[in-house]
Amino acid sequence: MDSTEFHTQRLRGGALVRIRPVQRSDRGKLLAGFERFSRESRYRRFFTATPKLTDGMLERLFDVDGHDRVALGAELLRLGFLPGAGVGIARFTRDQADPTVAEMAIAIVDDLQGCGLGTVLLRELAAAAREQGIERFTAWVQPDNEPMKALVYKLDPNAACHVEDGLLLFEIELPGPAAARGRPRARTRDVDRSVAAGSVAWLADRLRQLLPGRIAGAFVRAR
Questions:
Q1: Which residues are paired to 213 by β-bridges?
Q2: What phi and psi, each to the nearest 5 degrees, are found at residue 177?
Q3: Helix (H), strand (E), coil (C) string for the chain
Q4: CB-based contacts of 38: which residues, under 8 Å, 6+ apart?
Q5: Which of 106, 180, 192, 203 is the most exposed place for a label (fewest CB within 10 A)?
Q6: Are 144 and 43 in contact (CB under 8 A)?
Q7: How far, CA to CA in Å, does 27 sit from each of 22, 73, 87?
Q8: What is the pLDDT of residues 61-105, one digit of tens each?
Q9: How far apart are CA 69 and CA 86, in angstroms?
Q10: How do residues 189-217 score in pLDDT, each as one tens digit?
């Protein structure tokens, strides 16, 4: 997966997010995002009480190579184009015994759960995995984690699971590249143009609300 690739998505509720590969420079965003997880969300992600991310945990989270280990992050966009807070992360790690299988995990900050971000991240992760020859995901899920189970079944309605060590272990068939994406992925330059156009439209709408029509129109034309 090209580290310059990303795309934007408007969530239910209106928030605009950008999905892109995680980089080591995102350390601050990841730590700030972790503080927005509730105790329950932390437990569901790490399967243990996790009051803070240790250096070792951070190192593992950033241990990505774009092939066997991939992590995608979601960040809010302010004013339609300015990078904001990190609000979610999804990752997969290839199974060394079977290179067509990878274990996946996903986490979303509490205040954006239920807005469709999990679905967006998981489908993007599936598309990235397909590009690397992966055909199936496995996922460990707590039995009472209904949102995560629903997310799995959105990706694969026929996903199989069994109980192991008190957890549900899902086996998820990945959709083909076209189905996983829903639409072609836009490269950075294309998205920049699209987001810039949307930002001008947003600004024009706000100016029309605040300024007399002729002044607002002249400002927008000058852009």
A1: none
A2: -55, -45
A3: CCCCCCEEEECCCCCEEEEEECCHHHHHHHHHHHCCCCHHHHHHHHCCCCCCCCHHHHHHHCCCCCCCEEEEEEEEEECCCEEEEEEEEEEEEECCCCCCEEEEEEEECHHHCCCCHHHHHHHHHHHHHHHCCCCEEEEEECCCCHHHHHHHHHHCCCCEEEEECCEEEEEEECCCHHHHHCCCCCCHHHHHHHHHHHHHHHHHHHHHHHCCHHHHHHHHHHC
A4: 110
A5: 192
A6: no
A7: 9, 11, 13
A8: 889 999 999 999 999 998 888 889 999 999 999 999 999 999 999
A9: 20
A10: 343 443 344 444 444 444 344 444 443 34
Longest dimension (CA), the chain: 68
Q: What is the pTM of this model?
A: 0.74
Q: Are strands 7-10 and 16-21 parallel, antiparallel or unpaired?
A: antiparallel
Average pLDDT over residues 158-179: 88
